[in-house]
């Protein structure tokens, strides 16, 4: 469930601008894939989402540079009735203090069966991983900590 949005998107005019991270808490499932084989899988909860990255707390920290597939229930329904799932294919870029950050390479919304489950709120936990990934063609691995 979305808890709040603390920042508004900024203008897209400057090529070096940071894409804003939005504090969104959603349950997710992830799979680490190497050569089309699933090496590891787990569950977690998003901490922030932007158009280029997802930061989440998971079952464990994940090494950098691995292919990862993430699936999460989207909180908004299509036509107010059809459940959606967001499928993300990305690469792990940072793991620190129990949080993992991934660069989004591809994403796709898919319809899903209505599970009519009620999400239980989880207390908000701070995560010190702060992503600052620039658009393609720039230093894509630049990460800064607050």
Features:
single chain, 146 residues, mainly beta, Thrombin, subunit H, six-stranded antiparallel β-barrel, two-stranded antiparallel sheet, 49% strand, globular, disordered N terminus, disordered C terminus
Short description:
Helix content is 0%, strand content 49%. The chain contains no helices and eight strands. The chain has a six-stranded antiparallel β-barrel. Strands 7-8 form a two-stranded antiparallel sheet.
- Count of extended strands: 8
CATH topology of the domain at 27-117, anyone? Thrombin, subunit H
Distance between the termini: 25 Å
The whole-angstrom Rg is 15 Å
Overview of the structural elements:
With 146 residues, this protein is mostly beta strands. The protein has a domain at 27-117: Thrombin, subunit H, CATH 2.40.10. It has strands at residues 27-34, 37-49, 53-58, 67-78, 82-96, 99-112, 130-131, 143-144. The protein is globular and about 40 Å long. The chain starts with 26 loop residues before the first strand and ends with a strand. Mean pLDDT is 76; it is low at 1-17 and 131-146.
């Amino acid at each position: 469930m979305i808890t709040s949005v603390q920042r508004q998107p900024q203008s897209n005019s400057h090529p070096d601008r940071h894409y804003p991270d939005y504090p969104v808490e959603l349950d997710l499932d992830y799979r680490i894939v190497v050569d089309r084989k699933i090496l590891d899988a787990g569950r977690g909860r998003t901490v922030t989402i932007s158009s280029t990255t997802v930061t989440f707390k998971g079952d464990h920290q994940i090494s950098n540079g691995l292919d990862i597939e993430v699936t999460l229930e989207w909180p908004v329904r299509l036509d107010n009735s059809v459940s959606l799932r967001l499928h993300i294919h990305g690469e792990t870029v940072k793991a620190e203090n129990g949080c993992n950050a991934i660069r989004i390479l591809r994403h796709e919304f898919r319809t899903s069966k209505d599970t009519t489950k009620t999400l239980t709120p989880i207390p908000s936990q701070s995560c010190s991983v702060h992503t600052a990934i620039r658009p393609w063609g720039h230093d894509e691995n630049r990460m800064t900590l607050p």
